[in-house]
Amino acid sequence: MDSFFIYYLMTLGSYYFTGRAFYLIIFNNKPENKHVFNIKIENFYLVLGLIIFSQFLLIFNFFAGLNKFNLIFFLISIFIVNLRYIKIPKLSILQLIKIGVICVFFISFYDIGLSKDSYLYHLSSQSWIFSEKIVFGLSNLNPYLGYMSISEYSSSLLNAINLNLAHTFNLVFLITFFWIMFEFIFSKISFYKNLAFGFGIFGILDNFGFDGGRNGFIALQEINKFDYSFSIISILFVIFSIYLLVFTKNINKNELLVLTLLLIFAIQMRVFGIILIPILLYIQFQFKTFLSSTNFSFLLLILWLFKNFINTSCFLYPVKFSCLNSNWLFKNQAEYISNIVLDSFRDPENGINTIKNFDWILNVFLPNNKFVLINFLISLIIFRVCFTLLIKNSTFFNIKYFSKFLILPMLLISLWILMFPQYRFSSFFLMFAFFILNFDLISNQKGMNLKLNLVVTVIAMLLVVNLNDYKNFVENPKRDIEIVLPVIEYEKMSYFGVKPISENSKGILCFQRKDCYSGNYNLILTVSQYNYKTIKPLENKYYEDLLNK
């Protein structure tokens, strides 16, 4: 355990100081640049470091596998940049709290495991990234490889040390979220104080109520699932966008760059992140920043779309209209996968039967999620009662406000139900809806009491970690933290690839084997003179036949 804790700290430290190096290079360490959105830039170092490091790995993978990435040279370079300005920080109460956040979330390693999707395609994706330069037509091998997220790049390096270390990807976002909430509490800005209190109450109530109390607050997930990380980066993007538009009514280049990087990384995690683009475009229009030099960062998004095209023949896989008729296109794959994935969200038990009807809402969604919606409404009411009791001149039911802004939360909840109707996707939509429904209170000019706010947020953070994590930590704090994968047998296919045949693979789970797939089709692998590999199907009607069944 001791060595694993050191690896954990080293991983977070690498991200933190990569973010700090980025700040020193881009922001020039000028006094006026030490804050973005009127909070200290250091709160963003972790997530900015992860974003920048991931972009380095993405670019490198266009030319070589990440097993050839010189991590030592990269870290030495980061260290040298950080030497430009060495400052020993003063240990304030806030700094001690932030150190405590890091320690608390380390306990989450004691009851964490790999997600099922890890065995289906994440580990295989990471094996390809680690051992090979970018592959043309990679999704032809396994259609789910087309969903490759930006998270796979950093995870592929960490897997070489310990599979559990990939959990740090999600922890970066949870730690950053609570760092920012605590920064809000100690801020002089009442909007920030009240928002932290709101999310604190919401987080506590997530643990109490019907069916366990789930109300849409962020949570821990299995390794290689990053739905809540997407929710965190998206909700932070929304919060700071609204803060600029409503309160400061101004934006500087540094704030625009941070917003843009958050947006790009959200899209790189999930293609659904494109729904945030109109918000950034509105900000650009409102503050006339279309010609800002910070817009160069959109080159990273263009690069990501190009990567998608190489892997899948689609710029936004599996969105059908974004696909082109390339030399490695597997016809109808995107359309079929789009249908089957959407259907699996709506009704995972009964085959493709929900695309052209809405019966699943009454038959599947509401039975599974009615208590989530009830708990959300109860949380909303409790927060408004608490706030109006604690803060004078606040109104429990603001008819004028609700008559104007109720439509947006309704649209958000409807979008969740129609497109991503599983609980793990709910956090962004429900936290955004909670934020909007309480914006009249959160924007009150009087801020919430610091001590009460601090207690509420600490409790909310402690409750994010599962009880089993605390139990396992207390019983055996020095236990080994390591996942051991089973031995799987594979059958050689006629041309390229293998198929899993072991009982524990269920005929579809490939684990870390990169050339594994379970479809009933044959593939060929070609290699160019520059050692770029292309995977092509021999039978192009496989998905067409499935669609016609």
Which key phrases capture this entry?
549 residues, mainly alpha, two-stranded antiparallel sheet, two-stranded antiparallel ribbon, 6 strands
Describe what you observe in this structure.
The chain has 549 residues and is mainly alpha-helical. 55% of the residues lie in helices and 4% in strands. It contains 21 helices and 6 strands. The strands form 3 sheets. It has a two-stranded antiparallel sheet. A two-stranded antiparallel sheet has the order 3-4. Helix 1 crosses helix 3, helix 9 runs antiparallel to helix 10 and helix 9 runs parallel beside helix 17. The mean pLDDT is 93.
What is the number of helices?
21
Name the overall outline.
globular
Major β-sheet strand ordering:
1-2
Structural class based on helices, strands and sheet pairing: mainly alpha
Extract low-pLDDT stretches.
none
Estimated radius of gyration: 24 Å
Give the ordered list of helices and strands. Answer: HEEHHHHHHHHHHHHHHHHHHHEEEEH
From the structure provided, what is the oligomeric state, counting identical versus distinct chains? single chain
Strand content: under 5%
Distance between the termini: 52 Å
According to DSSP, the number of beta strands is 6
Mean pLDDT score, rounded? 93
The major beta sheet can be summarized as: 2 strands, antiparallel
Helix content: 55-70%
Short description:
This protein has 21 helices and 6 strands.
List strands and helices in order, with pairings.
Layout: H1 2-26, E1 35-36, E2 39-40, H2 45-61, H3 71-82, H4 93-106, H5 116-131, H6 151-158, H7 168-185, H8 190-205, H9 227-248, H10 253-269, H11 277-287, H12 298-312, H13 333-346, H14 359-390, H15 399-405, H16 407-419, H17 426-437, H18 439-442, H19 450-464, H20 467-475, E3 490-492, E4 498-500, E5 523-527, E6 533-537, H21 542-548
Antiparallel strand pairs: 1-2, 3-4, 5-6
